[in-house]
Each structure stands twice: as structure tokens, then as C-alpha cells.
Design brief:
- The protein is α/β, with parallel strands linked by helices and 336 residues long.
- It is 31% helix and 23% strand.
- The protein has 12 helices and 12 strands.
- An 8-stranded mixed β-sheet has the order 6-7-8-3-9-10-12-11, sandwiched between helices. Strands 2-1-4-5 form a 4-stranded antiparallel β-sheet, covered by helices on one side.
- Strand 7, helix 8 and strand 8 form a beta-alpha-beta unit.
- The longest helix has 18 residues.
- The N terminus is likely disordered.
- The structure holds adenosine-5'-triphosphate (ATP) and magnesium ion (MG).
């Protein structure tokens, strides 16, 4: 950069028009349909949506983790750190994964290697990506375990994954993902198997780290309640699409898409009675066999109009920084 030039402060990660299709024996599965979003440094972006809505496939598409075939990225652009990730050579991408982009897989029990100590698994990325020697890597590995709140870190380095509790294994996974000071951390629902207290602790840790390290975090979950107090912004996914995007408070106070409103109703109120039943969203998620020609939420929507059956709505801004893919944003069903 020439002297005196101001650095461009744009998003650290910028995804636009991403389309990912699986070619299976049963036909195509349009798992990700025209997904766009960005992430700013130091921002915690929550991604919510029910099972099969395309959260994992979206994130795996970005960092080249999908098996191709059957997966195929049909369209889109992903900019990260001046690179177009969808057109980057395998070597560079490999260096980015676990280096500048850390990620925690959905199932940490299977992603830790049971045959190596936790210390070894923490040290590996440090030696590979950060050029540390064995001793330096051990010191840093201990710091990382301390960072994620594991007591007796020095001794625990020599333990194997099965010697840790479920919650601790998840912390270890996060420590590994954080090892190389990533600019972006993608965490795919690492808290579902945990009790609420541990979930809250891990999310608090994320909040702290993103401020301390200026790291952007993408936190994927089924549960809007989990990220309510933590995320800066939320993407709501449904049927392979982003159906709503807003700053977290705005989303809670002023949800525009009927799916988001339905999701909000599934959150048990904190002060609620124990026996309070969770509302479930009636109906089935859409079949993703072809590129959508109607709104994916049509069959389950209580404010749908004729147009929703003819056209798939694109996202339109409803307030500053808030958009929704709905022809009738904010509409309430007519009673009766
Ligand atoms: N290897 C694959 N082959 C075919 N279809 C796949 C494959 N992987 C995922 N899919 C399909 O892609 C769609 C999106 O899946 P994805 O795993 O992204 O959902 P998700 O939102 O992460 O769900 P969950 O909350 O259960 O993790 C689903 O319909 C899924 O069945
Ligand atoms: Mg998933």
C-alpha cells in the first residue's frame, strides 16, 4: 500500500450469490440458493435455521470442504483477505483453513483424533501454519487451553480426547480453531450437546475473544435463543436461502419474515413455566430438488398471497441494515 493511503475497511469475508448443488442418484439437491452475506472484523454473526436449511453446506462451500462431486458450486463469489476463495488453488485454501480461517465442525466428538493427545492436536496447526518448534508450540498450546477455560492446562495437554468431558472437548476444538489467531472463526453449532450453562460460557468466551482479537465469528445454531444476547447480527436461513438479516435486537423486536416470527415463538421464555410447551412450526421444510420458483416458505406461511406461489422473493431492505425475502414483510395473519 502506498504511503499515506488509508486501508480499505470493508468486510473481512464477503459472500455473494452462492449456489451449491449436490448431484445425487436421486437427482439434484439445491442445498444453497443464492446466499449472500458479509462479516466485519470483530463481528459475531449468528446463523440460524432449522435442520437442512443449508447452514453447514454454505459454510463448507466457502472453505472448500465439500466433497466435489457430489457437491458442485454453481455460482457465487467469496472474497476473503483479497482472495477469491472459490477460485483459489488447493494449497492456498488448505493454508487458509485452520490458519486465517478457523472452524469448529458440527460434531466435535468425531473431529478430534482419539489416538493423539490433545496437546499434539493443538500443536500441529501451530507447527504447520505458524512455523513454531516443538517447545514453542507446547507453550502456546497450554495458553490456548487456558484461554478456553480448561483447568490444569499443562497436565491436560498429555491427555487424550476421551479423558475430557463433552463440554471440555468442545472447548478443545475451539482452542484448536483459535490456534493460529484466525481472522474469521466459523463455529458450526458446537453447543447443542451441552447444557445451557456451558453454552453460555462458551458464547461469552467468543464474545470476549472477538473484541480482544478483532476476530470475526460466524456462529451457527438451530436456536435463536442461544445467540440472542451475544450476536451482533443474525442471518436467518430457510430452504437454502437467507430469508432475513438484521442486527440482533432489531430482529427480535421487529421480525419481518414469517419464518423468523415462527422461530421466535419457538424460544421458551426465560421466566416461563417449566411445563410450557414449545411451539413447533407446522408443516415440512421444502424439497430442494430444483431451483426454487416460489417462496420456499409458502407451504407453511400464514400470510402468503398468490404472488408467493409464482415468484421466489429476493431480499429487500426493510430498515437500515435489515432485509427480508418476503413479499409481505411484517404482515400479520388475518384472524379467524
Ligand atoms: N453430501 C450430500 N449429498 C446430498 N445432499 C446433501 C449432502 N450434504 C447435505 N445435503 C443436503 O443439503 C441440505 C442442507 O444441508 P445442511 O447440512 O447445510 O443443513 P443444516 O442447515 O446445516 O442442518 P443442521 O441444522 O441439521 O446441521 C439438506 O437438504 C441436506 O440433505
Ligand atoms: Mg449443519
Amino acid at each position: 500500500m502506498p504511503d499515506g493511503a488509508t486501508p480499505v475497511t470493508g468486510p473481512v469475508l464477503d459472500v455473494s450469490g452462492l449456489k451449491t448443488v449436490f448431484n445425487t442418484r436421486g437427482g439434484e439437491v439445491h442445498a444453497v440458493n443464492d446466499v449472500s452475506f458479509d462479516l466485519t472484523a470483530g463481528e459475531l454473526l449468528g446463523v440460524v435455521g432449522e435442520s437442512g436449511s443449508g447452514k453447514s453446506v454454505t459454510m463448507m462451500s466457502l472453505i472448500g470442504l465439500l466433497p466435489m462431486p457430489p457437491a458442485e458450486i454453481r455460482a457465487g463469489r467469496v472474497s476473503f483477505d483479497g482472495l477469491d476463495l472459490l477460485n483459489t488453488d488447493v494449497e492456498t485454501l488448505r493454508a487458509i483453513r485452520g490458519g486465517k480461517i478457523g472452524f469448529v465442525f458440527q460434531d466435535p466428538m468425531t473431529s478430534l483424533n482419539p489416538t493423539f493427545t490433545v496437546g499434539f492436536q493443538l500443536a500441529e496447526p501451530l507447527r504447520k501454519h505458524m512455523g513454531m518448534n516443538k517447545r514453542q508450540a507446547r507453550v502456546r498450546a497450554r495458553e490456548l487451553l487456558e484461554l478456553v477455560g480448561i483447568p490444569d492446562a499443562d497436565q491436560r495437554l498429555d491427555d487424550f480426547p476421551h479423558q475430557f468431558s463433552g463440554g471440555m472437548r468442545q472447548r478443545v476444538m475451539i482452542a484448536i480453531a483459535l490456534a493460529c489467531d484466525p481472522q474469521v472463526l466459523i463455529a458450526d453449532e458446537p453447543t447443542t450437546a451441552l447444557d445451557v450453562t456451558i453454552q453460555a460460557q462458551i458464547l461469552e468466551l467468543m464474545k470476549e475473544l472477538r473484541t480482544k482479537l478483532g476476530m470475526g465469528v460466524i456462529w451457527i445454531t438451530h436456536d435463536l435463543g442461544v445467540i440472542a444476547g451475544i450476536a451482533d447480527r443474525v442471518l436467518v436461513m430457510y430452504g437454502g436461502q437467507v430469508v432475513e438479516q438484521a442486527p440482533v435486537r432489531e430482529l427480535f423486536e421487529n421480525p419481518q419474515h414469517p419464518y423468523t416470527r415462527a422461530l421466535l415463538e419457538t424460544i421458551p421464555s426465560v421466566s416461563g413455566e417449566r411445563e410450557e410447551r414449545l411451539t413447533v412450526i407446522e408443516g415440512q421444510p421444502p424439497i430442494l430438488g430444483a431451483a426454487p420458483t416460489a417462496c420456499p416458505f409458502l407451504d407453511r406461511c400464514d400470510v402468503a398471497t398468490d404472488r408467493c406461489a409464482r415468484e421466489n422473493p429476493t431480499r429487500v431492505e426493510v430498515a437500515s441494515g435489515h432485509d427480508a425475502a418476503c413479499f409481505n414483510p411484517g404482515a400479520v395473519p388475518i384472524a379467524g
